[in-house]
Amino acid sequence: MKIKLLVVISLMVVMSAAMVAPVMAAETGNTTITGNPTAYVALTINSATVAMTLIPPGVNSDTSNHLDAAANCPSAIKAKDAMTNGKPSAGFMVNVTTADGTYLTDTLGAAMGISGTAIGVFTTTPISPLTAVDQTLYTGSGAGPSQELALSFNQAVAYSDKILPTGYSYRIPVTFTITAT
Questions:
Q1: What's the distance, CA 19 to chain centroid?
Q2: Closest CA to 117 of 165, 55, 69
Q3: pLDDT tens-digit series, residues 48-69
Q4: What would the mean pLDDT of 145-168 be, rounded to a whole number?
Q5: How many whole angstroms separate alpha carbon 44 and alpha carbon 67?
Q6: What confidence tens digit (pLDDT) does each residue in 166-178 have?
Q7: Could you give the domains of the chain?
């Protein structure tokens, strides 16, 4: 009986040691996680079309539109005359047929200007006149939540500017772009 008990106890000790041994022999390791947020910029415009009232004489302004901009890095918002569909004159509102969008040769006598209002991390510089080359309208210092940035489209109109017949209007396509700087 003593031998059987000794064998059972010996087996239990061996089994206990076998269960503990892998845990005591387990390897450990470390890993270091690194990261850096990527530059993020986002820009939307609240309306694709502005129907501007043009009354002579003087500068007419439309403030019905705005940009929504967000950036986590220094950034610049630029504007330019997109010169789409064969538009002949950069910076100027040009006579276009509303039926098919064909540009004609009549332009308003003064170029379009754009201005904004500084808010949050964004400062502004007025653009006058608008050209076919990107010009900086807003600069941002970064690390700001989405901001609603005011837009003012400014168009001087004179008594000498041609009144267009029904089915025609003056048009200028403006492109806004935000980039990390």
A1: 60
A2: 69
A3: 889 999 999 999 999 999 999 9
A4: 95
A5: 6
A6: 999 999 999 999 9
A7: 53-180 (2.60.40)
59 burial via Cβ count (<10 Å: 0-12, 13-18, 19+): exposed
**CB-count burial class (<10 Å; 0-12, 13-18, 19+) for 150:** middle
What percentage of the chain has pLDDT greater than the value 70? 86
Q: What is the pLDDT of residues 87-99, one digit of tens each?
A: 999 999 999 988 8
Nearest-angstrom CA–CA distance, 14 and 25: 16
| Token pair 């608008």 in the structure block, residue | 130
**Quick one: tokens of 65?**
């539109």
What whole-number distance in Å separates Cα of residue 104 and Cα of residue 88?
A: 8
Determine the pLDDT at residue 32.
95
Name residues whose C-beta falls within 8 Å of residue 66's C-beta, 6 or more positions apart in sequence: 45, 46, 148, 149, 150, 151
Within its chain, how far is the Cα of 55 from the centroid? 33
The answer to whether residues 58 and 153 touch, using CB atoms and an 8 Å cutoff, is no
Report how far apart, in Å, the C-alpha atoms of 63 and of each of 50, 51, 123 are.
9, 11, 18
How many residues comprise the chain?
181
Mind giving me the DSSP string for 74-137? -EEEEEEE---TT--STTS-EEEETTT--EEEEE-SS--EEE---BTTEEE--BSS--SS-EEE
